[in-house]
Amino acid sequence: MNIIASKAKRNIFHDFYATGAAINYQEHHDVIFAIKQLNLPKIEEILLEVSDPFSENYGKYLSREEVGRMTENKVGVQMVLNYLLTNQVNIVHQTLYDEYITARASLEKWEVLLSAKFIQYQSKSNDRFIHRTSSYKIDQDVAVYLSSIHNLVELPIPIISTLSTVKMTELISAKTAYSGTITPPVLNQYYNIFTNSGNSLVSQTVYSTSQQYFSPSDIAAFQSNYHIPPHPVDFDPNSRNSSAQCIANYMACIESNLDLEYIMAIAQQTPTSIM
Fold first, then answer.
1. Phi and psi (nearest 5°) for 105?
2. Contact 17, 174 (CB under 8 A)
3. N or C: which end of the chain has fewer CB within 10 A?
4. DSSP reduced 3-state for 91
5. How far apart are CA 176 and CA 184, in angstroms?
6. Nearest partner of 108 among 18, 4, 7, 24, judged by Cα
């Protein structure tokens, strides 16, 4: 049996530490399998064409369905599902075109299945506990269809001061001229964005791969702070609108919330959805 192994590449900005506590191996743990997508070079080619004002295909954007049909990997999805179901692992969520498959099993089951060894981590800023391993192994016959596996080795990125700001010095080389926090004006300057006027005839979407929520009140505060015309999220088919969820656990909100705030700041008054 061919095996592929992965070792941890820790996010240096996490605020978790190993507790050394004993683990309840019957506790359930979700693992997210990212299916390797097809036709990505073609998709990139189309992206460049529809974004080029001098191309005859400028503005001829693909629909979500068209992109999904071009990139979906039906063989890979079936192989991963067969692998999980054969090993009696529960499937708890699949994205629209099976780009991501979330599976749930006990820590004991994952340790056996992935040759992993979990330890408990706790956040320094709150009482949140998580479990991670330093390495894992998976059958090469399955690994060939995967681009990544999540919730095994990586540690979450912590919130920094508020949901609306992240330290620029942590994201851009210290050699650049920027410092402080990421704000809409800084993004405009750094990427030479000459206008933030959007277009009501097009739309934009934040794609939440980890089923995160967003806080309308925080988005409204962000827009007010940076003098952005107020604009709520227009389309929320999966009911991700929940300030209460964000308050209860900011890590369930931080990524989608930030994405929505910045995309609506850069392309203002543009119909916006979260999927």
1. -155, 170
2. no
3. N
4. strand
5. 17
6. 24
Can you read off the two tokens belonging to residue 164? 């609306």
Cα→Cα distances 139→107, 114, 116, 180, 224, Å: 19, 9, 13, 45, 51
* pTM of the predicted structure, to 2 decimals: 0.62
β-pair partners for 175: none
Identity at 79, one-letter amino acid code: M
Distance between CA atoms of residues 68 and 74, nearest Å = 11
- Summarised one tens digit per residue, pLDDT across range 6-56 is 655 555 456 788 999 999 999 999 999 999 999 999 999 999 999 888 899
- Neighbouring CB atoms inside 10 A of 158's CB total 18
Task: Summarize pLDDT for 164-220 with one digit per residue, the tens.
Answer: 444 333 433 333 444 457 888 888 888 888 889 888 888 898 887 677 888 888 899
As given in the structure block, the two tokens for residue 23 are 């683990």
Axis crossing angle, helix 216-225 with helix 254-266, rounded to the nearest 10: 40
Q: Are 173 and 111 in contact (CB under 8 A)?
A: no
- Count other C-beta atoms under 10 Å from residue 2's C-beta: 8
Please state the domain extents for the chain. 3-37+72-150, 168-274
